[in-house]
Amino acid sequence: MSSNVLALDTGNLYHRVGRPERAEVEAAVRTIIRWTGDDPDRDGLIETPARVTRALEEAFVGYAHDPAAMLQKCFDETDGYDEMIALRGVRFESHCEHHMAPIVGRAWVAYIPDGRVVGISKLARVVEAFARRMQIQERLTAQIANTIDDVLKPKGVGVVIKATHHCMTARGVHKPDTDLVTSRMLGCFRENGQLRQEFLAMTA
Ligand SMILES: [Zn+2]
């Protein structure tokens, strides 16, 4: 996987695909309800298309956010702080692009600054902005690491994600107790085995 390709899609993508109106999405949900065999006009279902559309809006709000822009505001008065900064176990909910099924997990995000640091909530926001899109876990992991690397230009970045994929646990092969672990190590996290171990120990 080339980091250039992975680093591309960080911004607002609506202009590329042309965003349908809300009413079209609600009509599509009505179609799905009819297709299941139920009646979208009965009392219990009448509000369902609007609710599902709002839920989708929330699940995919990441397309409206630009994670690179979130990291632009950083601080350089760090008195030479040059050790690891690690945000541990950020909970997220994403959706796999193959089944639109939930991917539920946690992300560990670490970097070693080269003079510049960001507010810690920004790291969590970057995770959210990429998670709330159609994803595969491998790309989610790489996009978080690449964006921090591109914008902050730190000495190194490490990202580890552990997540459960509902397309695998609740359907398909039905393996409820499995999770998928992915990682991307850049700069000193890739070159320095001891540093990588120190970070990985935090994710155990
Ligand atoms: Zn899937």
- Proportion of helical residues: 40-55%
Q: Give the overall silhouette.
A: elongated
**Small molecules bound in the structure, each named once:** zinc ion
The DSSP helix count reads 10
What class would the helix/strand composition place it in? Answer: alpha+beta
Q: How far apart lie the N and C ends?
A: 26 Å
Averaging pLDDT over every residue, what do you get? 92
Proportion of strand residues: 15-25%
Order of strands across the main sheet = 5-2-3-6-7
- Low-confidence region ranges: 1-8
Architecture overview:
With 204 residues, this protein is α+β, with helices and mostly antiparallel strands. Helices cover 43% and strands 23% of the residues. The chain has a five-stranded mixed beta sheet, sandwiched between helices. Strands 1-4 form a two-stranded antiparallel ribbon. The two termini are 26 Å apart. Residues 1-8 have low confidence and may be disordered. Zinc ion binds at residues 96, 98-99, 101, 165, 167.
